[in-house]
Specification:
By secondary structure, the chain is of the alpha/beta class. Strands 1, 2, 3, 4, 8, 13 and 14 form a 7-stranded parallel β-sheet that branches. A 4-stranded antiparallel β-sheet has the order 6-5-7-9. A 3-stranded antiparallel β-sheet has the order 10-12-11. Helix 10 packs across helix 11, helix 13 packs parallel to helix 15 and helix 15 runs antiparallel to helix 16. The protein is 47% helix and 15% strand. The protein binds 5'-O-[(L-methionyl)-sulphamoyl]adenosine. The site of 5'-O-[(L-methionyl)-sulphamoyl]adenosine has 21 residues, from strand 2, helix 1, helix 7 and strand 13.
Length: 517
């Protein structure tokens, strides 16, 4: 990834439904990455938003007896409210109904039309109305849509097509020459496999007579733009300037779920190529949160409302669980027991206890002041080395968006501090050596913890801000919610002797589980 600039996006969420755990996961992942990059001093831009056109949205609006835009307005409010509760620090929120977006979509359509990249033809085929997709005979399963299982209908109509097929060879070459373009590698192979079959042209219009809720095709008022052709352009329209792409384009990273890989890794790059725009650096597809064996989804009815769990366990613990328990790319099982288990083991036991121990000793033996460390012993130096080694490992994991690994590396440091304290047992040693003899242990463990909390702060900006305030390095406990820590904090040696600490109660109280009946 190019150092210095980081532009990350989430998919634009459909506003036919309330935000759920799948949306929350991608958005928290983007937030954590954005916060990390800000902490490293990169010029960071984080975009999210909503996908508001198309049949599904129109139907949801009708069901509620609302005009489509009024329906979208109220749903956008719900998304933004959840994002506030999840402490999402997006820089921009784009809605596909905004003028700034529609203008760019129409500009691109005009450019492609005038350049002969779009043509009109009669389409004959099978169509899934709810999914707004055409299928061929070989795609459909028992007369039903392979995506949603609902019946498809035969359709014959005039439409506009984008000459996507012309870019097939170029796309294969681009993917082969840019190994990081599609991540993880198995998804890259999946796309290359898909591209072994001939790539068709893409139908990019819908007749107004059938669907009016869309961006008008600028050169034919009888048609609106296909919802995917419209929505994908948001990544560009949000940062484009009047004169062209602007300094933020191209995106560094498009985060998506595995179900929308083809649209992002095939449609989008060919659209950009046809429009003469630079390609994003990377598209990363994550897996699904499962309930049992099944994807959690509204239609299955097994969806967890992120807000419910947020209220019970707190935003930081919830964010931590989402980031730690899903290996980016793979599916992960969701259960409340897993959330509780993770909070108790990692946050209450390892991290919370470590902070508590360090604070208590500095309180008891040093009147709440970080002691000056005398000459260091071998065990102290070993811990410092370990902390020094942790930082580049965490940063490397982050460059590959392997958040679970970045967290695990940091938690290993926390566990190492706990082991170090067990071995040095300052609470016993103090009896023989006096405070002088344990000053080094206390100073080293406090600084190690300070570093670990800094590394965890993009995941848990609230609680880690509180911890760093208690350790005396932040004046305000809520500072990290709005401002990243100083990049210089990614090195050993920030906590100065005589700094006053502010001991508090358990940062992550243990959650008592009810015994099974
Ligand atoms: N509107 C399109 C995206 C357009 S981007 C230009 C869309 N929206 S969506 O609201 O249906 O889905 C958004 C994202 O949520 C997808 O990336 C999808 O993978 C993700 N998830 C939905 N359910 C999920 C899980 N159970 N687990 C993890 N993510 C899943 O598609």
């Amino acid at each position: 990834m190019t150092r210095g600039k980081f532009y990350v996006t989430t998919p634009l969420y459909y506003v036919n439904d309330a935000p759920h755990i799948g949306h929350a996961y991608t958005t928290v992942l983007a937030d954590v990455l954005a916060r990390f990059h800000r902490m490293r001093g990169d010029e960071t831009w984080f975009l999210t938003g909503t996908d508001e056109h198309g049949q599904k949205i129109l139907e949801s609006a009708r069901q509620r007896g609302l005009e489509p835009l009024a329906h979208c307005d109220s749903m956008v409010e719900r998304f933004q409210q959840v994002w506030r509760k999840l402490q999402i620090s997006y820089d921009d929120f784009i809605r596909t109904t905004e003028e700034r977006h529609q203008r760019v979509v129409q500009q691109i359509l005009t450019q492609l039309w005038e350049g002969g990249r779009i043509y009109q033809a009669t389409y004959e085929g099978l169509y899934c109305i709810p999914d707004e997709r055409y299928w061929t005979e070989k795609d459909i399963v028992d007369g039903k849509c392979p995506l949603c299982g609902r019946p498809v209908v035969p359709l014959s109509e005039k439409n506009y097509f984008f000459r996507m097929s012309e870019y097939q060879d170029w796309l294969i070459r681009h993917i082969e020459e840019h190994p990081g373009f599609i991540q993880p590698e198995y998804r890259r192979n999946e796309v290359l496999g898909f591209l072994r079959k001939p790539l068709g042209d893409l139908c990019i219009s819908r007749p107004v007579a059938r669907l009016s809720w869309g961006i008008p095709i600028p050169f034919d008022p009888e048609y609106v733009t296909y919802v995917w052709f419209d929505a994908l352009i948001n990544y560009y329209s949000a940062v484009a300037t009047a004169g062209g792409p602007g300094a933020r384009w191209p995106a560094s990273l498009h985060l998506i779920g595995k179900d929308i890989l083809t649209t992002h890794a095939v449609y989008w790059p060919t659209m950009l190529q046809a429009a003469g725009l630079a390609q994003p650096e990377s598209i990363l597809a994550h897996g699904w949160w499962l309930s049992g064996e099944q994807k959690m989804s509204k239609s299955v009815g097994n969806v967890v409302q992120p807000l419910d769990l947020l209220e019970v366990y707190g935003v930081d613990a919830f964010r931590y669980f989402l980031m730690r328990d899903m290996v980016v790319g793979l599916d992960a099982a969701f259960s409340e027991a897993a959330v509780v288990g993770r909070i108790n083991a990692d946050l209450a036991n390892d991290l919370g206890n470590c902070l508590n121990r360090v604070e208590r000793m500095i309180h008891n033996y040093c009147q709440d002041r970080i002691p000056a460390a005398p000459d260091l012993e071998e065990a102290d130096r070993e811990l410092i080395d370990r902390a020094d080694r942790t930082v580049p490992r965490v940063l490397e994991a982050l460059d590959g968006a392997r958040i679970h690994q970045a967290i695990e590396e940091t938690m290993e440091l926390v566990r190492a501090i706990n082991r170090y304290l067990e071995i040095k047992a300052p609470w016993k040693a103090v009896k023989e050596t006096g405070v002088e003899g344990i000053a080094g242990t206390l100073a080293v463990s406090a600084e190690g913890l300070r570093l670990a909390c800094t590394l965890l702060s993009p995941v848990m900006p609230g609680k880690m801000g509180e911890a760093l305030h208690r350790l005396g390095v932040l004046d305000s406990a809520v500072e990290l919610l709005a401002h990243p820590p100083d990049p210089a904090w990614l090195r050993w040696g920030v906590l100065q002797a005589w700094t006053a600490i502010r001991p508090g109660t358990a940062l992550f109280p243990r959650i008592e589980t009810k015994p099974a009946p």
